[in-house]
Amino acid sequence: MVKPGVTPDYPEHWEADVVLRDGGTGHLRPMTAADAPAVQAFHMAQSQNSIYLRFFTYKSQLTPKELRRFTELDYRDRVAFVITRGGGIIGIGRYDRLDDPTTAEVAFNVSDANQGRGLGSILLEHLAAAARENGIDRFTAEVLPENRKMIQVFSDAGYEVDRHFDDGVVSLAFDIDPTEKSRAVMESREHRAEARSVAGLLAPRSVAVIGAGRSWGNLGRQLLEHVVEGGFTGPVHAVNPDALEVSGMLPYFAITDVPGPVDLAVIAVPYSQVAGVVDQCGAAGVKGLVIATAGFADDGERGLARQRALVRHARANGMRLVGPASLGLANTNPAICLNASMAPTLPPAGGLGLFSQSAALGASLYAAVNQRAIGVSTVLSAGNRADVSGNDMMQFWEDDPHTVACGLYLESIGNPRKFSRICRRLARSKPVIVAKSDTMGLRLPPGHAVRTTQAPAGALDAMLRQSGVIRVNTIEELVDVAQILVSQPLPRGPGLAIVSNSLALGNVVADSAEQHGLGVTNVSANLVLDTGQSRALPLLRRTLLEALERPGTDSAVVMLLPVPGLTVDAIAATLRACSEAAGKPVIAVFTGIVDPRITVDRQLAGGQPAYSRPGAAIAALAAITRYAQWRTQEKPTFDRPAGVDPDAAARLLEGLLEGVTGDGLLTLDTAHTRELLGCYGISVLESVPFHTADDAVAAAERLGWPVAIKAMDAALRHRLDLGGVRINIENAASLRRNIAQMRKLLEPYGHYNLEVQSMAEVGQSCTLRAIEDPLLGPVVSFGLAGDAVNLLDDWAHRIPPLSVGDTAELVRSPRAARKLFGYQGLPAGNIAALEDLAARVALMKDEHPEIAWLECNPVLVGPRDVTVLAVELRIGNPAQRTDSARRAMIS
Question: Which residues of 122-144 are buried (b: 16+ CB within 10 A; e: fewer)?
Answer without folding.
Answer: bbbbbbbbbbeebebebbbbebe
